[in-house]
Structure formats: structure tokens, C-alpha cells
Amino acid sequence: MKQRIPYLDFLRCLAILFVIVLHSITPVITNPKFYSCTTWYLCMLINPLVRTGVPLFFMISGYLLLSRSSTGHFSPFYQHNIPKLLIPLTAWNLIYYWIEVDRTQTLFRLQDFFTRFLQQGVGYHMWFIYTLLGIYLLCPFLKRIVDHCTSQQLVLLLGIILFPTTLRPLLNQVLPISLHLFNPLLEGFLGYVLLGYLLGNLSFHKPARWLIYLGGGLGYAACLLGNLAQASPQSISLPMNGGYMLNHYLLAAALFVFFRTCFETHAPQLAKLSLPLEKASNLTFGMYWVHVAILDFLSVSFGSDVPLFTWLAVQTCLTILLSFLFSAVLSAIPMLRRILG
Fold first, then answer.
1. Rounded mean pLDDT of the chain?
2. What are the DSSP calls for 152-221, one per residue?
């Protein structure tokens, strides 16, 4: 049996909560009619934090996959991991397409389904699984790289990955000239995978940890202030929300190191949480799949006379609870668990 790592189980639980909250508040922060109201500002305050949910998922996968010797064996790795994503991906695309057909009272068109299945999926949250599939294809190659590189060389590789997708756009905002040295060499989200491996394996002394926390604080501030500066009653563009933005890397790294340090420093006191965290962590994949369907259902169930903050709080809490219960039931039925995750 694989040994569980409690802080990773905690981070996985935290990540799914962040993702659900993010998808709950996004219709509010992007809608100009809510601009400058109290609830809008509250959502903007938590937006930088909850946008680290997906980066944390990538970082957890990166640490786990690149730390296992089995990842370097191509055929066994693909045979074990690809179906675990592809089967639920197919099933949930069918489910979400059927929900859409029922809601819009249209016909189930097989050609339309396959077209959307091959174009990032029917649900807007499915892009993550498609990206993860691509990263899984790269993982055996990346495993062989990390096994034969020093930590300094891996940091350099991380910089090479991040330059065209994360660093170059940032430099082009401040330099008097525009840089167009080269296009992305690898998927930009792969940087999170490598970052998770590095942060999970390297040892950080207290000064280094505080520098990482400072970077996280700066990342939070940059995301919040940058988005506020570009928002107006006419348009809310939120330029700092891009998935490759440096502020997300900085804040996600700070959270990863902070909770790793907490769990390792206080291991005896937190040992009793290991089993509950493991069980909750095992439910996050099912929660990820179903939460958008629940959000969509709840969004049309509340009346327009409900105050915005109350509506948002109730919708978010119910989505978390119902997603958790659905995934718990799913996990208890082996056949459904294999098909739906």
C-alpha cells in the first residue's frame, strides 16, 4: 500500500474547496452590474486565493508522479494512468451533454457531441482534465529528466518553461520593447508540475521559507490590485487571472510550503487527522466532476429577491456539501467509481 502524505491530502481537499468557491464567485466578479458592491469586493478579496486551486492540483500531481520510480516506465505508466482519466472524461462528457440537451430541449446529436468531446469537453471545467492528460503523456519523459538533473538544473528548466508563457508577458508590460524570442516549448501548466516536485523534495530553512511567503503575499497583492485597477462599471477584464500568471505561481508556492511545513513540524499533533484527510482527499476527484452540474442547478433554483451575499453563501455551501455527498456515494460503489472517478 502506498504511504499517504498528510499535507498533500490536506492540500488536495483545500484545492477542491478553492475550485468550487472560484466557480461560485466568478459570475459575480465578472458581471459589471455587481461592480463596487460590498459582495463584489469580498469576492475580489478571495479571488487571488481560490485561483490557486488548480495550480495546487497540478503541483500535487507533479510531486507524486515525479517522485515515483514507476513513472519512468512508459508503457506501464500509460496503461495505469491514462484510463483513470479517459474513462471518467468520456462518461462525464456524456452526462453533461445529456443535461444540456434536456435543459435546452434539443436533440442529442452524436456529431456535435464528438466535436465538443475533442475540443476541451462539454463542461467548462473539463479543460483541466484534458490538460492533465497531456501532462501525463509527458511525465515519463519528465521523470527521466528530474532523475538526472540537479536541483539547480531543474530550477533552470522551470525558468525555460515559464519564460514564454509567464515571464515574457510580464516583461513586455514593463520593458520599452516587446520580446518575442520563442513560443512555448512545453505546456505552460507543466511549470506547476515541476514546481510541486521541487517544493516537495527540497529542504527550506526559515529565511528561505519567509522569502517564499513574502513572494506569496506579493502575488496576492499583484492579483488583487491589478484586477481592481482594470475593473470599471463598463467592463471587468481581470487581467491578473490568467492561469500562467506569475502571481499564481508565487501564491501557490507559498501555500504549498506553508502547509508542508505545518504538517511536518507538528506531525505528532496532526497525526489523528491523517485518516479523515485521506478519506476526504479520495473524494475530491468525484467532487471536481460533479460540482459544476450542481452549481448550474442551484443557480436557477434561488429567487432573484434573495440578497446577493446570502445567495452566494448558500449556493457555495450547498454545492460543497452535495458534491461531497455525491462523491461519497460514488466511492462506495466500485463499478461507478471506476467509470465516474
1. 94
2. HHHHHHHHHHHIIIIIHHHHHHHSSS---S---SS-TTHHHHHHHHHHHHS---HHHHHHHHHHHHHHHH
